[in-house]
Amino acid sequence: YQLQIDLQQKGHLLLINEGVSSQKYCLCPSMIYTQNQKHSTNKIILLPQENAIAKSFKFNEVGEEYFLAIVTKSPLHLSWIRSDYSPSSVVDYVRLDGDRLQEIFQKIGKQRDSQVFYKKFTVTRTAWLPW
Q1: Do residues 27 and 4 lie in contact, with contact meaning Cβ atoms separated by under 8 Å?
Q2: Predicted TM-score (pTM) of this structure
Q3: Exposed, middle or buried: residue 113 (CB in 10 Å: 0-12, 13-18, 19+)?
Q4: What 3 state SS string does 13-62 have?
Q5: What is the pLDDT of residues 107-125, one digit of tens each?
Q6: N or C: which end of the chain has fewer CB within 10 A?
């Protein structure tokens, strides 16, 4: 799957996903799904982007998926979003733990005029497609 996001303002997008297993992931900015976190007004954003390492999102479990989008005026400069970061696995680029969540919300707390959006959807079935 790909995600389509329609921003109505200029800003820096932070997109967090909480999956069925309650694990949280930072989808944007991310070295896996996009390397560009600044997007223009009225621009439709597709994730993963064309130049991304990952080519799609995959949902492995049936249940509710939650997305939290935060648009900030200035970039957050998260400590683990850097090209020289060498995780032990690809998912370590995007997995959020308590320290990373704390860093995100401390940096957002220092900014003014951030906007927060929330979306929930239900995965009703998963299927393997042979392409």
Answers
A1: no
A2: 0.83
A3: exposed
A4: EEEEEECCCCCEEEEECECCCECCCEECCCCEEEECCCCCCCCCCCCCCC
A5: 999 988 888 899 998 988 8
A6: C
